[in-house]
Design goal:
VC0802-like, single chain, about 140 residues, alpha+beta, 4 helices
């Protein structure tokens, strides 16, 4: 399991057809790779959370497009599919009194581990704790 702290950028966009695509095209046009994202809907707007390969440039691009940006530190766990991974992570953080505020996952590339993104109350402590955990058993392929 590989554990890191990365910058997540969140933006609120209108909840209407094509708006997410416009954000994606804006970043693609400047060669920004989206490593993971989440979209949560509200009545009138959506909250888009992004982890990219260049958070500084991403922030500048989004601000330049008139989108308000909120930054946060998130834990990024790179892990292979295995029974009990969520239990291992959740129980370890709970034992250390670290709350998971929200989480989402990236898509996995064929033959590569997926990434689990977690927003926690104490990102540095969470990173250090999770980095010391053993791998869970892997499912046969």
């Amino acid at each position: 399991m590989i554990v890191d702290i990365q910058r997540q950028l969140s933006i609120a966009i209108e909840n209407q057809p094509g708006r997410l695509g416009q954000v994606g095209r804006l970043l693609a046009g400047l060669n920004i790779h989206i490593r993971a994202f989440s979209v949560i809907d509200n009545v009138e707007q959506g909250m888009v959370r992004l982890v990219t390969d260049n958070p500084v440039a991403t922030r500048e691009i989004l601000l330049g497009a008139g989108l308000p940006v909120v930054e946060a530190e998130v834990i990024v766990l790179e892990m292979r599919d295995g029974v009990g991974n969520l239990a291992l992570v959740g129980e370890a953080l709970a034992a250390a009194d670290i709350n998971i505020e929200y989480g989402y996952a990236s898509t996995a590339e064929i033959g590569r581990p997926a990434k689990l993104i977690l927003k926690t109350t104490h990102p540095i402590a969470a990173r250090d704790l999770l980095a010391a955990l053993p791998e869970t058993r892997q499912e046969p392929e």
